[in-house]
Amino acid sequence: MSEAMTKTVGAAEPVGPGRPRGRRRTWGDLPVVPRRLIILAVILVAWQAYVSFSGVNQLLVSGPVDVAKTMAEGIADGDLLRSTATTLQILFGGMAAGMLIAAVLTTLASWTRLGEDILVLLTSMLNPLPSIAVLPLAILWFGMNSTSLMFVIANSVIWPIAINVSNGFRTVNPTIMAVGRNIGLSGVRIVKDVLIPAALPNIIAGLKTGWAFGWRTIIAAELVFGVAGGKGGLGFFINDARTFMRTSEVFAGLVTIAVIGIALELVFTWIERRTVVRWGTKTG
Amino acid sequence: MKADTTAERPAGEPLLTVESARVGYQTDGRFQTAVQDVSFDIYPGENIMLLGPSGCGKSTLLKTIAGFIEPSGGTVRISGRTDLAPGPDRAVVFQEFDQLFPWHTVEGNLTYPLRVNGSSRQEAKRLAGEYLELMGLVHAAGRYPHQLSGGMKQRVAIARAMALRPLMLLMDEPFGALDAQTRSRLQRELKDVAARNDVTILFVTHSIQEAVFVGHRVVVLTPPPSTVREVVDVSGLDDPTSPEFVAALRRLRSLLTEDGEEPDDMAFE
Fold first, then answer.
1. Residue A23 CB contacts under 8 Å (≥ 6 apart), including other chains
2. Using CA atoms in the order B171, B177, B179, B180, what is the torsion angle rounded to 10 degrees?
3. Per the database record, which ranges form the ABC transporter domain (chain B) (predicted)?
Protein backbone atom coordinates (compact mmCIF):
# COMPACT_ATOMS: atom_id res chain seq x y z
CA MET A 1 0.00 0.00 0.00
CA SER A 2 1.75 3.15 -1.10
CA GLU A 3 1.78 6.25 1.06
CA ALA A 4 0.45 8.37 -1.76
CA MET A 5 -2.76 6.40 -1.88
CA THR A 6 -3.75 7.05 1.69
CA LYS A 7 -5.29 10.46 1.21
CA THR A 8 -8.68 10.17 2.84
CA VAL A 9 -11.64 10.16 0.50
CA GLY A 10 -13.69 13.34 0.77
CA ALA A 11 -11.13 15.15 2.90
CA ALA A 12 -11.67 18.88 3.08
CA GLU A 13 -8.95 20.76 1.25
CA PRO A 14 -7.17 23.40 3.29
CA VAL A 15 -8.71 26.77 2.54
CA GLY A 16 -6.91 30.06 1.99
CA PRO A 17 -4.77 31.62 -0.68
CA GLY A 18 -1.95 29.43 -1.85
CA ARG A 19 0.47 31.49 -3.86
CA PRO A 20 3.51 29.53 -4.93
CA ARG A 21 6.68 30.98 -3.44
CA GLY A 22 8.49 33.43 -5.68
CA ARG A 23 5.66 34.05 -8.13
CA ARG A 24 5.06 37.73 -8.99
CA ARG A 25 1.96 39.37 -7.52
CA THR A 26 -0.75 39.75 -10.12
CA TRP A 27 -4.25 41.21 -10.46
CA GLY A 28 -5.74 37.93 -9.23
CA ASP A 29 -3.92 38.20 -5.89
CA LEU A 30 -5.85 41.35 -4.95
CA PRO A 31 -8.93 40.86 -2.77
CA VAL A 32 -12.22 40.93 -4.66
CA VAL A 33 -13.55 44.26 -3.32
CA PRO A 34 -10.62 46.43 -4.47
CA ARG A 35 -10.61 44.56 -7.80
CA ARG A 36 -14.25 45.48 -8.41
CA LEU A 37 -13.84 49.07 -7.16
CA ILE A 38 -10.91 49.66 -9.49
CA ILE A 39 -12.88 48.41 -12.49
CA LEU A 40 -15.90 50.50 -11.48
CA ALA A 41 -13.71 53.62 -11.19
CA VAL A 42 -12.19 53.00 -14.62
CA ILE A 43 -15.65 52.62 -16.18
CA LEU A 44 -16.94 55.80 -14.54
CA VAL A 45 -13.92 57.80 -15.69
CA ALA A 46 -14.21 56.45 -19.24
CA TRP A 47 -17.93 57.21 -19.29
CA GLN A 48 -17.41 60.78 -18.07
CA ALA A 49 -14.52 61.29 -20.50
CA TYR A 50 -16.69 60.10 -23.39
CA VAL A 51 -19.52 62.48 -22.50
CA SER A 52 -17.19 65.45 -21.85
CA PHE A 53 -14.77 65.14 -24.75
CA SER A 54 -16.32 63.15 -27.62
CA GLY A 55 -18.84 65.81 -28.53
CA VAL A 56 -21.76 63.40 -28.16
CA ASN A 57 -25.17 65.08 -27.92
CA GLN A 58 -25.68 65.63 -24.17
CA LEU A 59 -29.42 65.56 -24.70
CA LEU A 60 -29.02 61.86 -25.46
CA VAL A 61 -26.20 60.77 -23.13
CA SER A 62 -25.59 61.98 -19.58
CA GLY A 63 -22.29 61.60 -17.77
CA PRO A 64 -21.91 60.04 -14.33
CA VAL A 65 -21.47 63.42 -12.65
CA ASP A 66 -24.79 64.68 -14.04
CA VAL A 67 -26.49 61.42 -13.15
CA ALA A 68 -25.17 61.57 -9.59
CA LYS A 69 -26.41 65.17 -9.29
CA THR A 70 -29.84 64.20 -10.63
CA MET A 71 -30.04 61.27 -8.22
CA ALA A 72 -29.14 63.51 -5.30
CA GLU A 73 -31.85 65.98 -6.36
CA GLY A 74 -34.36 63.18 -6.88
CA ILE A 75 -33.66 61.89 -3.41
CA ALA A 76 -33.77 65.39 -1.92
CA ASP A 77 -37.11 66.38 -3.48
CA GLY A 78 -38.50 62.89 -2.89
CA ASP A 79 -39.47 62.11 -6.51
CA LEU A 80 -37.00 59.29 -7.03
CA LEU A 81 -37.51 57.96 -3.51
CA ARG A 82 -41.30 57.93 -3.91
CA SER A 83 -41.07 56.08 -7.22
CA THR A 84 -38.64 53.57 -5.75
CA ALA A 85 -40.85 53.02 -2.72
CA THR A 86 -43.91 52.45 -4.94
CA THR A 87 -42.04 49.92 -7.04
CA LEU A 88 -40.65 48.07 -4.02
CA GLN A 89 -44.05 48.02 -2.33
CA ILE A 90 -45.68 46.41 -5.35
CA LEU A 91 -42.73 44.06 -5.76
CA PHE A 92 -42.92 42.88 -2.13
CA GLY A 93 -46.68 42.45 -2.37
CA GLY A 94 -46.43 40.38 -5.53
CA MET A 95 -43.48 38.39 -4.19
CA ALA A 96 -45.30 37.60 -0.96
CA ALA A 97 -48.38 36.38 -2.83
CA GLY A 98 -46.19 34.38 -5.24
CA MET A 99 -44.16 32.77 -2.45
CA LEU A 100 -47.32 31.82 -0.58
CA ILE A 101 -48.86 30.17 -3.64
CA ALA A 102 -45.53 28.48 -4.43
CA ALA A 103 -45.41 27.12 -0.88
CA VAL A 104 -48.92 25.66 -1.22
CA LEU A 105 -48.12 24.11 -4.62
CA THR A 106 -44.85 22.67 -3.34
CA THR A 107 -46.53 21.16 -0.31
CA LEU A 108 -49.17 19.53 -2.49
CA ALA A 109 -46.51 18.33 -4.91
CA SER A 110 -44.49 16.77 -2.09
CA TRP A 111 -47.52 15.09 -0.56
CA THR A 112 -49.23 13.51 -3.52
CA ARG A 113 -48.24 12.17 -6.89
CA LEU A 114 -51.16 14.05 -8.48
CA GLY A 115 -49.95 17.31 -6.95
CA GLU A 116 -46.48 16.69 -8.34
CA ASP A 117 -47.85 15.97 -11.82
CA ILE A 118 -49.97 19.13 -11.74
CA LEU A 119 -47.01 21.25 -10.64
CA VAL A 120 -44.69 19.82 -13.28
CA LEU A 121 -47.28 20.37 -16.03
CA LEU A 122 -48.15 23.91 -14.95
CA THR A 123 -44.49 24.83 -14.59
CA SER A 124 -43.51 23.47 -17.96
CA MET A 125 -46.32 25.47 -19.57
CA LEU A 126 -46.10 28.74 -17.65
CA ASN A 127 -42.37 29.03 -16.79
CA PRO A 128 -41.19 29.52 -20.41
CA LEU A 129 -43.87 32.20 -20.93
CA PRO A 130 -42.20 35.62 -20.53
CA SER A 131 -44.02 36.85 -17.46
CA ILE A 132 -44.73 40.29 -18.95
CA ALA A 133 -46.87 38.53 -21.59
CA VAL A 134 -49.73 38.12 -19.13
CA LEU A 135 -49.89 41.88 -18.45
CA PRO A 136 -52.65 42.57 -21.01
CA LEU A 137 -54.74 39.86 -19.41
CA ALA A 138 -54.06 41.31 -15.96
CA ILE A 139 -55.12 44.78 -17.13
CA LEU A 140 -58.26 43.27 -18.61
CA TRP A 141 -59.10 41.58 -15.32
CA PHE A 142 -57.95 44.12 -12.74
CA GLY A 143 -57.53 47.41 -14.67
CA MET A 144 -54.54 49.76 -14.71
CA ASN A 145 -53.57 49.44 -11.06
CA SER A 146 -51.12 47.87 -8.70
CA THR A 147 -53.23 44.70 -8.44
CA SER A 148 -52.43 44.00 -12.08
CA LEU A 149 -48.74 44.47 -11.40
CA MET A 150 -48.81 42.20 -8.36
CA PHE A 151 -50.62 39.56 -10.38
CA VAL A 152 -47.95 39.64 -13.05
CA ILE A 153 -45.15 39.52 -10.48
CA ALA A 154 -46.74 36.70 -8.53
CA ASN A 155 -47.05 34.71 -11.74
CA SER A 156 -43.42 35.38 -12.61
CA VAL A 157 -42.08 34.14 -9.25
CA ILE A 158 -44.36 31.19 -8.48
CA TRP A 159 -42.92 28.81 -11.06
CA PRO A 160 -39.17 29.15 -10.52
CA ILE A 161 -39.67 28.98 -6.76
CA ALA A 162 -42.09 26.04 -6.81
CA ILE A 163 -40.03 23.96 -9.21
CA ASN A 164 -36.75 24.56 -7.38
CA VAL A 165 -38.15 23.92 -3.93
CA SER A 166 -40.03 20.76 -4.87
CA ASN A 167 -36.93 19.57 -6.72
CA GLY A 168 -34.95 20.21 -3.54
CA PHE A 169 -37.38 18.19 -1.45
CA ARG A 170 -37.39 15.34 -3.93
CA THR A 171 -33.61 15.07 -4.15
CA VAL A 172 -32.82 15.21 -0.44
CA ASN A 173 -30.26 12.53 0.36
CA PRO A 174 -32.26 9.49 1.58
CA THR A 175 -29.53 8.65 4.09
CA ILE A 176 -29.98 11.93 5.96
CA MET A 177 -33.75 11.33 6.10
CA ALA A 178 -33.09 7.80 7.39
CA VAL A 179 -30.86 9.28 10.10
CA GLY A 180 -33.69 11.68 10.97
CA ARG A 181 -36.12 8.81 11.42
CA ASN A 182 -33.53 6.76 13.25
CA ILE A 183 -33.01 9.41 15.92
CA GLY A 184 -36.76 9.47 16.44
CA LEU A 185 -38.00 12.31 14.24
CA SER A 186 -41.27 12.26 12.35
CA GLY A 187 -44.05 14.52 11.10
CA VAL A 188 -43.60 18.28 11.23
CA ARG A 189 -40.35 18.00 13.15
CA ILE A 190 -38.51 16.00 10.47
CA VAL A 191 -39.75 18.48 7.83
CA LYS A 192 -38.61 21.49 9.83
CA ASP A 193 -35.35 20.10 11.19
CA VAL A 194 -34.12 17.83 8.39
CA LEU A 195 -36.02 18.19 5.12
CA ILE A 196 -35.98 22.00 4.94
CA PRO A 197 -32.34 22.52 5.94
CA ALA A 198 -31.33 19.71 3.57
CA ALA A 199 -33.30 21.33 0.73
CA LEU A 200 -32.15 24.85 1.63
CA PRO A 201 -29.63 25.15 -1.25
CA ASN A 202 -32.50 24.60 -3.70
CA ILE A 203 -34.89 26.78 -1.72
CA ILE A 204 -32.42 29.67 -1.80
CA ALA A 205 -31.71 29.09 -5.49
CA GLY A 206 -35.45 29.20 -6.18
CA LEU A 207 -35.96 32.39 -4.21
CA LYS A 208 -32.99 34.01 -5.93
CA THR A 209 -34.35 33.19 -9.37
CA GLY A 210 -37.81 34.28 -8.24
CA TRP A 211 -36.58 37.68 -7.05
CA ALA A 212 -34.58 38.21 -10.20
CA PHE A 213 -37.63 37.39 -12.35
CA GLY A 214 -39.91 39.54 -10.23
CA TRP A 215 -37.57 42.53 -10.33
CA ARG A 216 -37.20 42.42 -14.10
CA THR A 217 -40.91 41.92 -14.57
CA ILE A 218 -42.07 44.82 -12.45
CA ILE A 219 -39.83 47.30 -14.25
CA ALA A 220 -41.06 46.06 -17.61
CA ALA A 221 -44.68 46.20 -16.49
CA GLU A 222 -44.28 49.71 -15.13
CA LEU A 223 -42.77 50.88 -18.38
CA VAL A 224 -45.82 49.57 -20.21
CA PHE A 225 -48.02 51.32 -17.65
CA GLY A 226 -45.99 54.48 -18.12
CA VAL A 227 -46.55 54.36 -21.88
CA ALA A 228 -50.24 53.79 -21.24
CA GLY A 229 -50.35 56.86 -19.01
CA GLY A 230 -50.47 55.18 -15.60
CA LYS A 231 -48.81 56.58 -12.50
CA GLY A 232 -46.37 54.83 -10.31
CA GLY A 233 -42.91 53.53 -9.73
CA LEU A 234 -39.47 53.52 -11.27
CA GLY A 235 -40.56 52.31 -14.68
CA PHE A 236 -43.00 55.19 -14.84
CA PHE A 237 -40.30 57.58 -13.57
CA ILE A 238 -38.00 56.60 -16.43
CA ASN A 239 -40.68 56.77 -19.06
CA ASP A 240 -41.89 60.14 -17.79
CA ALA A 241 -38.33 61.52 -17.92
CA ARG A 242 -37.95 60.19 -21.46
CA THR A 243 -41.13 62.01 -22.52
CA PHE A 244 -39.71 65.34 -21.38
CA MET A 245 -36.14 64.67 -22.62
CA ARG A 246 -34.75 64.74 -19.08
CA THR A 247 -32.03 62.34 -20.11
CA SER A 248 -30.10 62.45 -16.84
CA GLU A 249 -33.28 61.36 -15.02
CA VAL A 250 -33.60 58.39 -17.37
CA PHE A 251 -30.04 57.42 -16.45
CA ALA A 252 -30.72 58.07 -12.76
CA GLY A 253 -33.69 55.72 -12.90
CA LEU A 254 -31.62 53.01 -14.58
CA VAL A 255 -28.83 53.37 -12.04
CA THR A 256 -31.36 53.09 -9.21
CA ILE A 257 -32.76 49.89 -10.71
CA ALA A 258 -29.28 48.44 -11.04
CA VAL A 259 -28.36 49.42 -7.46
CA ILE A 260 -31.49 47.81 -6.03
CA GLY A 261 -30.82 44.69 -8.10
CA ILE A 262 -27.30 44.53 -6.67
CA ALA A 263 -28.63 45.12 -3.15
CA LEU A 264 -31.02 42.17 -3.53
CA GLU A 265 -28.13 40.00 -4.73
CA LEU A 266 -26.12 41.06 -1.68
CA VAL A 267 -28.95 40.09 0.64
CA PHE A 268 -28.97 36.60 -0.85
CA THR A 269 -25.18 36.38 -0.69
CA TRP A 270 -25.40 37.34 2.98
CA ILE A 271 -28.01 34.66 3.67
CA GLU A 272 -25.97 32.06 1.78
CA ARG A 273 -22.80 32.87 3.67
CA ARG A 274 -24.56 32.26 6.94
CA THR A 275 -26.16 29.01 5.79
CA VAL A 276 -25.29 26.89 2.77
CA VAL A 277 -21.77 28.27 2.29
CA ARG A 278 -20.94 27.66 5.95
CA TRP A 279 -22.38 24.16 5.70
CA GLY A 280 -20.62 23.37 2.44
CA THR A 281 -23.90 22.47 0.73
CA LYS A 282 -24.22 25.36 -1.74
CA THR A 283 -24.96 24.10 -5.25
CA GLY A 284 -23.69 25.55 -8.50
CA MET B 1 -30.93 -25.20 10.49
CA LYS B 2 -27.22 -25.56 10.89
CA ALA B 3 -26.62 -22.19 12.50
CA ASP B 4 -24.38 -21.99 15.52
CA THR B 5 -22.48 -25.12 14.66
CA THR B 6 -19.14 -23.76 15.76
CA ALA B 7 -20.05 -20.86 18.03
CA GLU B 8 -20.95 -21.19 21.65
CA ARG B 9 -23.89 -19.16 22.86
CA PRO B 10 -23.03 -16.73 25.64
CA ALA B 11 -25.04 -17.11 28.82
CA GLY B 12 -28.15 -15.05 29.56
CA GLU B 13 -31.05 -13.69 27.55
CA PRO B 14 -30.42 -12.51 23.99
CA LEU B 15 -30.86 -8.80 23.33
CA LEU B 16 -31.95 -9.36 19.77
CA THR B 17 -33.53 -12.44 18.29
CA VAL B 18 -33.95 -12.88 14.57
CA GLU B 19 -36.14 -15.88 13.79
CA SER B 20 -36.69 -17.23 10.28
CA ALA B 21 -36.62 -13.69 8.94
CA ARG B 22 -37.69 -13.32 5.34
CA VAL B 23 -37.18 -9.96 3.64
CA GLY B 24 -37.63 -8.88 0.07
CA TYR B 25 -38.40 -5.92 -2.06
CA GLN B 26 -40.45 -5.00 -5.08
CA THR B 27 -38.57 -4.53 -8.37
CA ASP B 28 -40.31 -4.04 -11.71
CA GLY B 29 -43.52 -5.26 -10.16
CA ARG B 30 -41.92 -8.53 -9.03
CA PHE B 31 -41.18 -9.52 -5.49
CA GLN B 32 -37.49 -10.28 -5.04
CA THR B 33 -36.52 -12.28 -1.99
CA ALA B 34 -33.23 -10.98 -0.61
CA VAL B 35 -33.28 -12.82 2.69
CA GLN B 36 -34.90 -16.25 2.58
CA ASP B 37 -34.63 -17.61 6.08
CA VAL B 38 -32.20 -16.16 8.60
CA SER B 39 -32.04 -16.78 12.33
CA PHE B 40 -29.48 -15.61 14.87
CA ASP B 41 -29.26 -14.10 18.34
CA ILE B 42 -27.26 -11.25 19.74
CA TYR B 43 -26.37 -11.21 23.41
CA PRO B 44 -25.56 -8.03 25.37
CA GLY B 45 -22.03 -6.76 24.79
CA GLU B 46 -21.47 -8.87 21.67
CA ASN B 47 -20.10 -7.69 18.36
CA ILE B 48 -21.95 -9.72 15.77
CA MET B 49 -20.72 -9.49 12.20
CA LEU B 50 -22.97 -10.16 9.24
CA LEU B 51 -20.67 -11.40 6.50
CA GLY B 52 -21.68 -12.43 3.04
CA PRO B 53 -21.10 -11.98 -0.67
CA SER B 54 -22.30 -8.71 -2.17
CA GLY B 55 -26.02 -8.64 -2.78
CA CYS B 56 -26.69 -11.30 -0.15
CA GLY B 57 -29.13 -9.09 1.70
CA LYS B 58 -27.01 -8.33 4.75
CA SER B 59 -27.72 -4.61 4.51
CA THR B 60 -31.38 -5.38 3.90
CA LEU B 61 -31.41 -7.42 7.07
CA LEU B 62 -29.81 -4.59 9.04
CA LYS B 63 -32.35 -2.11 7.68
CA THR B 64 -35.10 -4.48 8.74
CA ILE B 65 -33.78 -4.57 12.27
CA ALA B 66 -33.45 -0.76 12.18
CA GLY B 67 -37.14 -0.60 11.26
CA PHE B 68 -36.75 0.86 7.77
CA ILE B 69 -37.99 -2.28 6.01
CA GLU B 70 -40.92 -4.46 7.01
CA PRO B 71 -40.02 -8.19 7.07
CA SER B 72 -42.35 -10.33 4.98
CA GLY B 73 -41.97 -13.28 7.31
CA GLY B 74 -40.46 -14.40 10.60
CA THR B 75 -39.90 -12.29 13.68
CA VAL B 76 -37.36 -9.80 14.92
CA ARG B 77 -37.47 -9.29 18.66
CA ILE B 78 -35.49 -6.65 20.54
CA SER B 79 -35.47 -7.16 24.30
CA GLY B 80 -38.92 -8.66 24.05
CA ARG B 81 -40.44 -6.07 21.70
CA THR B 82 -41.49 -6.81 18.14
CA ASP B 83 -42.70 -3.33 17.14
CA LEU B 84 -39.92 -2.19 14.91
CA ALA B 85 -40.49 1.46 14.06
CA PRO B 86 -37.14 3.22 13.52
CA GLY B 87 -35.87 4.53 16.82
CA PRO B 88 -32.78 5.65 18.71
CA ASP B 89 -32.65 2.40 20.72
CA ARG B 90 -31.10 0.94 17.55
CA ALA B 91 -28.80 3.75 16.45
CA VAL B 92 -27.56 3.24 12.89
CA VAL B 93 -24.15 4.16 11.49
CA PHE B 94 -24.28 4.21 7.70
CA GLN B 95 -21.52 3.84 5.15
CA GLU B 96 -22.20 7.21 3.50
CA PHE B 97 -20.11 10.12 4.71
CA ASP B 98 -23.03 12.51 4.35
CA GLN B 99 -25.02 10.86 7.10
CA LEU B 100 -24.03 13.82 9.29
CA PHE B 101 -26.29 16.89 9.38
CA PRO B 102 -24.23 19.41 7.39
CA TRP B 103 -26.03 22.32 9.10
CA HIS B 104 -24.85 21.27 12.56
CA THR B 105 -21.32 21.44 13.86
CA VAL B 106 -19.70 18.21 15.02
CA GLU B 107 -20.91 18.95 18.54
CA GLY B 108 -24.36 19.89 17.24
CA ASN B 109 -24.57 16.57 15.43
CA LEU B 110 -24.28 14.90 18.83
CA THR B 111 -26.39 17.28 20.91
CA TYR B 112 -29.29 17.61 18.47
CA PRO B 113 -30.38 13.92 18.56
CA LEU B 114 -29.98 13.97 22.34
CA ARG B 115 -32.20 17.04 22.60
CA VAL B 116 -34.78 15.36 20.34
CA ASN B 117 -34.80 12.46 22.76
CA GLY B 118 -35.46 14.54 25.82
CA SER B 119 -32.04 15.50 27.17
CA SER B 120 -31.77 18.96 28.69
CA ARG B 121 -29.38 21.42 27.06
CA GLN B 122 -26.69 20.86 29.72
CA GLU B 123 -27.18 17.10 29.72
CA ALA B 124 -26.85 16.96 25.92
CA LYS B 125 -23.73 19.09 26.01
CA ARG B 126 -22.18 16.97 28.74
CA LEU B 127 -22.92 13.68 26.95
CA ALA B 128 -21.72 15.07 23.62
CA GLY B 129 -18.45 16.13 25.27
CA GLU B 130 -18.05 12.70 26.79
CA TYR B 131 -18.50 10.84 23.51
CA LEU B 132 -16.45 13.32 21.49
CA GLU B 133 -13.66 12.66 23.96
CA LEU B 134 -14.18 8.91 23.60
CA MET B 135 -13.80 9.08 19.81
CA GLY B 136 -10.92 11.57 19.92
CA LEU B 137 -12.96 14.40 18.41
CA VAL B 138 -12.74 17.15 21.03
CA HIS B 139 -10.53 19.33 18.82
CA ALA B 140 -13.09 19.14 15.99
CA ALA B 141 -16.21 19.93 18.07
CA GLY B 142 -16.78 23.34 16.46
CA ARG B 143 -16.18 22.28 12.87
CA TYR B 144 -18.82 21.59 10.25
CA PRO B 145 -18.96 18.13 8.65
CA HIS B 146 -17.75 19.36 5.25
CA GLN B 147 -14.51 20.42 6.92
CA LEU B 148 -13.77 16.86 8.06
CA SER B 149 -12.02 13.94 6.38
CA GLY B 150 -13.98 10.76 5.69
CA GLY B 151 -12.48 9.00 8.69
CA MET B 152 -13.40 11.89 10.98
CA LYS B 153 -16.95 11.92 9.64
CA GLN B 154 -17.37 8.25 10.43
CA ARG B 155 -15.95 8.84 13.92
CA VAL B 156 -18.56 11.55 14.45
CA ALA B 157 -21.31 9.24 13.23
CA ILE B 158 -20.17 6.56 15.66
CA ALA B 159 -19.94 9.07 18.52
CA ARG B 160 -23.41 10.39 17.68
CA ALA B 161 -24.89 6.88 17.69
CA MET B 162 -23.15 5.91 20.93
CA ALA B 163 -24.11 9.14 22.70
CA LEU B 164 -27.75 8.08 22.34
CA ARG B 165 -26.80 5.07 24.52
CA PRO B 166 -28.80 2.68 22.35
CA LEU B 167 -29.56 -0.93 23.15
CA MET B 168 -27.37 -1.77 20.21
CA LEU B 169 -25.43 -0.12 17.41
CA LEU B 170 -26.35 -1.11 13.86
CA MET B 171 -23.38 -0.52 11.58
CA ASP B 172 -23.88 -0.83 7.82
CA GLU B 173 -20.35 -1.17 6.39
CA PRO B 174 -19.33 2.01 8.24
CA PHE B 175 -15.71 1.79 7.05
CA GLY B 176 -16.48 0.59 3.53
CA ALA B 177 -15.67 3.92 1.86
CA LEU B 178 -12.45 4.59 3.76
CA ASP B 179 -8.88 4.05 2.62
CA ALA B 180 -7.10 1.01 4.03
CA GLN B 181 -5.07 2.80 6.70
CA THR B 182 -7.92 4.84 8.10
CA ARG B 183 -10.09 1.80 7.94
CA SER B 184 -7.83 -0.37 10.08
CA ARG B 185 -7.27 2.46 12.55
CA LEU B 186 -11.04 2.90 12.96
CA GLN B 187 -11.55 -0.85 13.32
CA ARG B 188 -9.09 -0.81 16.21
CA GLU B 189 -10.72 2.25 17.82
CA LEU B 190 -14.20 0.81 17.51
CA LYS B 191 -13.13 -2.51 18.95
CA ASP B 192 -11.49 -0.79 21.95
CA VAL B 193 -14.33 1.60 22.63
CA ALA B 194 -16.98 -1.11 22.27
CA ALA B 195 -15.13 -3.45 24.62
CA ARG B 196 -14.50 -0.79 27.26
CA ASN B 197 -18.10 0.43 27.20
CA ASP B 198 -19.83 -2.91 26.77
CA VAL B 199 -21.54 -1.81 23.56
CA THR B 200 -23.60 -4.33 21.61
CA ILE B 201 -23.00 -4.13 17.86
CA LEU B 202 -24.49 -5.65 14.76
CA PHE B 203 -21.97 -4.94 12.03
CA VAL B 204 -22.48 -5.59 8.31
CA THR B 205 -19.30 -6.13 6.31
CA HIS B 206 -18.03 -7.90 3.23
CA SER B 207 -14.46 -7.89 4.51
CA ILE B 208 -13.30 -11.14 6.11
CA GLN B 209 -10.44 -9.39 7.87
CA GLU B 210 -12.84 -6.86 9.40
CA ALA B 211 -15.23 -9.61 10.48
CA VAL B 212 -12.49 -11.52 12.31
CA PHE B 213 -10.84 -8.48 13.85
CA VAL B 214 -13.89 -6.57 15.07
CA GLY B 215 -16.29 -9.44 15.73
CA HIS B 216 -16.99 -11.89 18.50
CA ARG B 217 -19.13 -14.07 16.29
CA VAL B 218 -19.53 -13.96 12.52
CA VAL B 219 -22.85 -14.86 10.91
CA VAL B 220 -21.93 -16.05 7.40
CA LEU B 221 -24.73 -15.67 4.87
CA THR B 222 -25.15 -17.51 1.57
CA PRO B 223 -25.79 -15.70 -1.73
CA PRO B 224 -29.41 -14.54 -2.18
CA PRO B 225 -32.02 -15.64 -1.39
CA SER B 226 -29.82 -15.97 1.67
CA THR B 227 -29.80 -18.23 4.66
CA VAL B 228 -27.24 -18.60 7.44
CA ARG B 229 -24.37 -20.76 6.22
CA GLU B 230 -22.66 -20.89 9.56
CA VAL B 231 -21.95 -18.87 12.69
CA VAL B 232 -18.24 -18.75 13.47
CA ASP B 233 -16.72 -17.82 16.82
CA VAL B 234 -13.89 -15.32 16.35
CA SER B 235 -13.76 -13.81 19.85
CA GLY B 236 -10.40 -12.93 21.33
CA LEU B 237 -8.60 -12.75 17.98
CA ASP B 238 -6.72 -9.45 18.20
CA ASP B 239 -3.42 -10.14 16.48
CA PRO B 240 -3.81 -10.41 12.70
CA THR B 241 -0.51 -12.28 12.46
CA SER B 242 -1.39 -14.98 14.99
CA PRO B 243 -2.02 -18.50 13.63
CA GLU B 244 -5.52 -18.52 15.14
CA PHE B 245 -6.40 -15.29 13.35
CA VAL B 246 -5.11 -16.60 10.05
CA ALA B 247 -6.96 -19.88 10.58
CA ALA B 248 -10.20 -17.95 11.15
CA LEU B 249 -9.60 -15.96 7.95
CA ARG B 250 -9.10 -19.23 6.05
CA ARG B 251 -12.19 -20.76 7.50
CA LEU B 252 -14.42 -17.78 6.63
CA ARG B 253 -12.86 -17.55 3.23
CA SER B 254 -13.65 -21.15 2.46
CA LEU B 255 -17.22 -20.68 3.70
CA LEU B 256 -17.62 -17.76 1.31
CA THR B 257 -15.84 -19.29 -1.68
CA GLU B 258 -18.01 -22.39 -1.55
CA ASP B 259 -20.46 -20.11 -3.25
CA GLY B 260 -17.98 -19.44 -6.00
CA GLU B 261 -17.78 -15.81 -4.94
CA GLU B 262 -14.38 -14.25 -4.42
CA PRO B 263 -14.54 -12.07 -1.32
CA ASP B 264 -13.41 -8.53 -1.91
CA ASP B 265 -10.74 -8.36 0.74
CA MET B 266 -7.30 -7.00 -0.05
CA ALA B 267 -6.09 -7.39 3.51
CA PHE B 268 -6.13 -11.14 3.08
CA GLU B 269 -3.96 -11.29 -0.01
1. none
2. 50
3. 18-248
User: B118, B56 in Cβ contact below 8 A?
Assistant: no
Q: CB-based contact (8 Å) between A4 and chain B? A: no
| CA–CA min distance A163, chain B (Å) | 23
The rounded distance, in Å, linking the Cα atoms of A29 and B121 is 45
Q: Which chain A residue's Cα is nearest to B67?
A: A182
For residue B148, list chain A residues with Cβ-Cβ distance below 8 A.
Answer: 11-12
For residues B98 and B95, what is the distance between their CA atoms, to the nearest angstrom? 9
| H/E stretch holding A159 | helix A146-170
Do B81 and B175 share a domain, yes or no?
yes
CB A164 within 8 A of CB A202: yes
Q: What distance lies between CA B144 and its chain's CA centroid?
A: 25
Could you read off the pLDDT tens digit of each residue along chain B, which spans 269 residues? 444 445 555 667 899 999 999 998 888 888 888 899 999 999 999 999 999 988 788 999 999 999 999 999 999 999 888 888 999 999 999 999 999 999 999 999 999 999 999 999 999 999 999 999 999 999 999 999 999 999 999 999 999 999 999 999 999 999 999 999 999 999 999 999 999 999 999 999 999 999 999 999 999 999 888 899 999 999 999 899 999 999 999 999 999 887 555 555 544 43
Q: A7-38: string of b/e by CB count within 10 Å (b at 16+)?
A: ebebbbeeeeeeeeeeeeeeeeeeeeeeeeee
How distant is the Cα of B80 from the closest Cα of chain A, in angstroms? 20
Contacts of A12 in chain B (CB under 8 A): 146-149
Tally the domains of chain B. 2
Looking at this predicted complex, what is its ipTM?
0.90
Domain boundary among B145, B165, B185: B165
Give pTM, 2 decimals: 0.84
Residue B75: give the domain boundaries: 1-89+168-264
| Euclidean distance between CA atoms B88 and A174, whole angstroms | 18
Are residues A279 and B144, on separate chains, in Cβ contact within 8 Å?
yes
